[in-house]
Amino acid sequence: MACPFCPDRTGKVDKKKSLSVTVPGGYYRCFKCGAHGRDTSLSPENVQDITAPAGHAVLPEGFTPLSGDRSFIFEGARAYLEGRHVPAEVWEALGIGATVRGRYAHRIIIPLMENHTLFGFVARSYVPTTRPYLYPPGMERHFFNGDALHLDTQMPVVVTEGIMDAVPLWPDSVACLGKPTHTHVTQLAATNRPVVCLLDGDAWTDNWSLALKLKMAGRPAITVRLPAGEDPGSLGRAWLTENVLKNTVGGEGFLDLQHTA
Question: pTM of the full predicted structure?
Fold first, then answer.
């Protein structure tokens, strides 16, 4: 939907419908001017243009936004996010919640938006299980936070495999929700932002391959080799900003961080 904050913050009317809203919950963020927060008056009834059409993705039963929640029942969910270096302000901005009911019980629910439309969610268990991640049946594997690729900035965008590696780096990150597909590579090649390839720590050759494909398509890309045994989500935003983002702005090449953790 059109962002009402853009005229005051940028001096320009938002003609590209840059405001993303997560419902239920009313959490919003503008991918143009950066305005974000919560407005509980935003509901499925008055933001139909940004919610999923009938028959498409909906959040699971019992979904409860974690921002502002202090109930004992979701203590494990909050502890898990804090342990993965995800601060409360990111929970709020992304509309992250949890549920203790149904198929996705005892899982953190991360809504997935594209073009201001909910296309699915990732359900990450915060209790021991043989299936840590679940997805809605039939969900297409688009990017997590794919709208970040359309921002007009030279700040690098970090591409990861898993969503829990990308969330701590939000808003300057996207996740493939698995190995990058041809569609993912095509979308990365089309962005105006430099790309930092930060796949799992044991997959640095995949990083190199992805960066090479992007360079062949004319997109500046940096290959990063993380310390042995580390993944992006295990290191935290502060470490990655200090060692990765500030060292790759506007650059290309190979960054080996094997001995810096």
Answer: 0.72
